């Protein structure tokens, strides 16, 4: 029997089990996964020419055997450092932190080490300084997590010959880019509330200098316009639960509010507290949808309906894109990667509208 890539899917019981004295090698992974060692190599190097089910089988075998590619040997053959640089920024926000974790996981699977440069301030000069520092370390390429406009603008001035991929930098970064479709995520949230029968949906937005906040607002507004629904005044926030709490106090004083879309889960959490203090029941009086699906979302009171982002997929695609650039030494233009689609997670914070 052969797998869909044409390689024999033999009895995995014949796979040699690694020991402390003999760590796992690529042929062990190939035997356990029932594929050739060439297929294992393609998976570890992020090649797109592997069927998804085969990729999953290889990655399971890698994890089961604890296989780690010999980065030094690979570097001697390819004349590369097998190190990648990641420019991020010092934040405790859930989205950027999970994006960084997704990139680290994808790099580790591909056999690359990661050198992280975390910025305390995000502006053009600091992003360029970080890129130059990583280039001096001899990294093979860099991934820049650039969700803020200042960081995205700096990407046009990166050092020449430094191969780079941008994450969450919008379509105008000038670099190959991977991002979650934030507009679609907002559309899913707003359409869910409209489908429940709400006349319109209010929004508590993120900071105006964040590309993600801008796109979520665009998705909110365009969905209301397409439905012919009234567009309420936009309420600004700063991603924090405190700003969501302050917005919740304002919304609680508006008797016609029945549905709110918060641009992230932390602000939704703050709104829930404000509504409770004002005697407003969720979802009986006001329905609330968040964005991100933080681990605590399912345990809020009530459990929060929200939009989930696939950060591991963002990491995998950004690594795949960078490895493609390395394979062709940047000479082949990388086609724009399709955006990673978010999903709606329905819980108990939304319901059909009732008279307040």
Unreliable parts: 1-15, 71-78
Q: How many E strands?
A: 11
Largest sheet: 5 strands, parallel
Radius of gyration: 23 Å
Strand order of the largest sheet: 2-1-3-4-5
Beta-strand percent range: 5-15%
Q: Compute the number of helices.
A: 12
What is the chain-wise order of helices and strands? HHHHEHEHEHEEHEHEHEHEEHE
- How would you classify the helix and strand content by structural class? alpha/beta
Distance between the termini: 64 Å
Pfam families: LacI (PF00356), Peripla_BP_3 (PF13377)
Domain HTH lacI-type: 24-78
Keywords: DNA-binding, Transcription, Transcription regulation
GO molecular function, one term: DNA binding
